[in-house]
Design brief:
The chain is α/β, with parallel strands linked by helices. It is 38% helix and 22% strand. The protein is built from 18 helices and 14 strands. It is elongated, with a radius of gyration of 26 Å. Residues 289-380 form the Methyltransferase type domain.
Length: 464
């Protein structure tokens, strides 16, 4: 099985920097199912091609499996050593993982630069034919060239086999190209060589969250990627829809800027994060969740505090997590610092066992972005299932809006806010949380406090 990636963008040898593989050397990597070889059949200023060749061991591929189940002969006589499948995805992840994640130590700006790239796969089994091939790649901006192979050249009446040599071309980053291949290659033949469970669902959301939500074939991609496991497919699709609904539309960036400008006069964002940080430090917490971490502004303040031995940021937006990674310079942190901090892609309205067992959680300016049904789901996900000992929640105080002359009467501070509560409404909600889940709560003002309308931000510190 051979994957070739070519660019003619001068200097074309920049491809070597992106792949972290020197064009002048043949490199071999041991994998659980065989070996992977990386080499460059051509490498000059005008054209460079890098090849990933898999040498799959048919015996090692099935070693250790239960021989009492299934067709024993079919385990050894099949097309797996010769076609692109989930084995290729694993090889991309393990051999080209830095390139797929968009890291380029020597030329960091290069990783974010779209380049004219062509990827050729020899050969790809496509259960669905050339039409399905185009349905998956063309919405991502690629042009597709597909060469079909007959079942038997001596018997043309038998028609074509499901095998194709496929070339896709497009102007994109290498990271994006590898991510698309990583997700889609196993989808074409609807098979995987390993168990598909919740970990695979998280991989799909992590790798596909930035583009799969808008793909017209996301249902079929999700179903096939998860090998028709209905429970996983249903959860994945729900979370992808959630991403689609909650990711900021283009005009929301303007709305966010307007909110930031509105609050800048009182340095409210800094005061809010300072108040949350103080509450978390006073709690004695050692492990902290930032739920809805956005671009990592609070995480950046948590990181210098040695009290916090484990810090995890969670957000539904892949783009926000990418911005947080850059803001926090995760690739440049000292190893001990980097071990303390982790970013997770996830929705706050579903139970997520990765979030259980933490001392504290911060939910900063999040709840007002949720419709009532989703807010109810968040309540259970945070207070019933994750159940940290301390939960710090902040939300705007609607009463304070009259203090901003530039904000029209009755208008929310942010275009995406579904509500903005008065102090009485927030306290009623918090009281219901305490009654339902066994917490107690205390309230703290954040920002300049007015005698009549209170402070611009209201904060509740929940404990149990």
């Amino acid at each position: 099985m051979l994957l070739s990636i070519t660019t003619e963008h001068p200097p074309a040898t920049d491809l070597g920097y992106l792949l972290h593989k020197h064009p002048g050397r043949l490199q071999t990597f041991d994998l659980s199912f065989g070996k992977a070889h990386v080499f460059y059949p051509e490498a000059d200023e005008n054209r460079c091609t890098a090849c990933l060749l898999l040498d799959i061991d048919p015996v090692g591929m099935v070693r250790g499996k239960n021989r009492s189940q299934g067709d024993l002969l079919a385990r050894y006589v099949n097309d797996r050593p010769y076609v692109a499948s989930s084995f290729l995805s694993v090889a991309i992840s393990q051999v080209l993982g830095a390139a797929m994640s968009g890291r380029c130590k020597d030329r960091p700006e290069l990783a974010d630069t779209p380049l004219p790239l062509a990827a050729r796969i020899d050969v790809l089994p496509v259960r669905g034919g050339e039409r399905f091939l185009r349905q998956l790649f063309e919405p991502l901006g690629y042009t597709v060239e597909a060469e079909a192979y007959p079942l038997d050249e001596k018997f043309p009446a038998w028609g074509n086999s499901p095998y194709f040599s496929v070339t896709i071309r497009g102007v994109t980053t290498l990271s994006q190209l590898l991510t698309h291949l990583y997700v889609l290659v196993p989808v074409f033949d609807n098979e995987k060589h390993y168990f598909v469970g919740e970990a695979e669902l998280e991989k799909l959301l992590a790798k596909g969250g930035g583009w799969l939500t808008a793909h017209p074939e996301k249902d079929q991609i999700t179903r096939r990627y998860l090998k028709h496991r209905y429970g996983l497919y249903r959860e994945a699709l729900s979370r992808l829809i959630e991403v689609e609904e909650l990711q900021a539309p283009p005009d929301e960036q303007t709305a966010s800027a307007e909110e930031e400008t509105l609050e800048r006069s009182v340095s409210l964002n800094d005061q809010r994060h300072g108040a949350v940080l103080a509450a978390l430090k006073a709690s004695g917490a050692r492990s902290v969740l930032d739920l809805g971490c956005g671009e990592g502004k609070l995480l950046r303040q948590l990181l210098p505090e040695n009290q916090f031995e484990q810090i995890v940021g969670v957000d539904v937006s892949i783009r926000s997590l990418e911005m947080a990674q850059k803001r926090l310079k995760l690739d440049r942190l000292p190893p001990r610092q980097a071990e303390r901090l982790k970013l997770l892609h996830g929705s706050l309205i579903y139970r997520d066992r990765r979030l259980e067992g933490f001392d504290a959680a911060a939910v900063v300016e999040v709840i007002e972005h949720l419709d009532p049904p989703r807010l109810t789901a968040l309540e259970r996900a945070v207070f019933e299932f994750a159940r940290p000992k301390i939960v710090v929640v902040t939300t705007p105080n609607q009463e304070y809006n009259v203090m901003w002359e530039s904000l029209p009467a009755g208008q929310f501070r942010h275009a995406d806010h579904r509500f903005e509560w008065t102090r009485a409404q927030f306290q009623a909600w918090a009281g219901r949380i305490c009654q339902a889940f066994g917490y107690t709560v205390r309230y703290l003002p954040v920002g300049p406090e007015d005698e009549k309308v209170g402070s611009p931000t209201q904060m509740g510190v929940f404990e149990f």
